[in-house]
Amino acid sequence: MPGARRGALLLSASVLLLAVVVLSLTVGARAINPLNALAALFDPDAPDAEVIRSLRVPRTVVGLVVGAGLAVAGVIMQALTRNPLADPRILGVSAGASLGVVLAMSVFGLSLLTQYVWFGIAGALVAGMAGYLVAARSRDGASPVTLALAGAALDASIGGAVYAILAASATTFDGYRFWVAGSLAGRTPQIALQVAPFLIAGLLLAAWLARGLDALVLGGDMAAGLGHKVARVRLAGAFAVALLTGAAVAAAGPIGFIGLAIPHLARALVGGAHRWILALSLILGPVMLLSADVIGRVVLPTGEVPAGIVTAVIGAPLLIVLVRRARLVAA
């Protein structure tokens, strides 16, 4: 695909993202004129400044970084495992974040998201790297199959521990059920600042991995023949997934389908070069998450639907369409 067409797609996606950001700032229980929203960004005394500055800007910023993190992590996981159905949960990262949050609530009695977000990030990093190390110590090393198997086993075992803790503590369950639905509501600037360094580090690592991911898709032997250090690329990829997913899940809960569907959509639009897939996913991930959040605000006359539920409703049909399109192309 010509570079000019790919550049045009990136530009179009950026314009779409800008439009979704405007909707995120203006749509909700109180509709706000876009011009008033723009004025509120620069003038704390402008009409609706309190709503824009304290509620919708932090919510939008968290949506931007979480959507980008989940989408890019999905691209890396699908390349590492050579599995089109892989998503960031494969290494047990989401389950690790859940265990960290549950332990923060049950053992340390923490109830605020700004307090237990660190436990979610730590749990995700420990689980992700544990999954990689278990796979690396197998006979075949950290191959796509062993990564998937080790991650699935870790996800199941950690999930069992989470449910055991929740069954023993009704108080922990009450706090956990609001987080696990996956939502951007109530997120503060402090949360965005807490997770941003981890997400930025993961995104930079993903950009560095782009050429290595292109080679890994061809197979480990082929990648090694092309001069890539396969073990280093896989380790760096696993660490990037742990950083991106851990920070995203800790901040917004285990939101699904973004890491699974967006890489397929980006690949269908720009081809198989990972530098382009990563760049487009970086934009389309926030588009999907913020769109889901906006829909969740208005779909019910009373209350909101968490963004994690809306992404599942949107993502499932999108994934089916992409799979059917891929089969038609292959035929």
UniProtKB/TrEMBL annotation:
Membrane association type: Multi-pass membrane protein
UniProt-listed SUPFAM superfamilies: ABC transporter involved in vitamin B12 uptake, BtuC
GO-annotated molecular function: transmembrane transporter activity
Transmembrane annotation, as ranges: 61-81, 90-110, 116-135, 147-171, 191-210, 277-299, 305-323
Cellular compartments per GO CC: plasma membrane
BP-aspect Gene Ontology terms: siderophore-iron import into cell
Record key words, sorted: Cell membrane, Membrane, Transmembrane, Transmembrane helix, Transport
Chief site of localization: membrane
Pfam (any one): FecCD
Location of this chain's protein in the cell: Cell membrane
CDD domains listed in its UniProt record: TM_ABC_iron-siderophores_like (cd06550)
Family affiliation: Belongs to the binding-protein-dependent transport system permease family. FecCD subfamily.
Protein name as annotated: Iron complex transport system permease protein
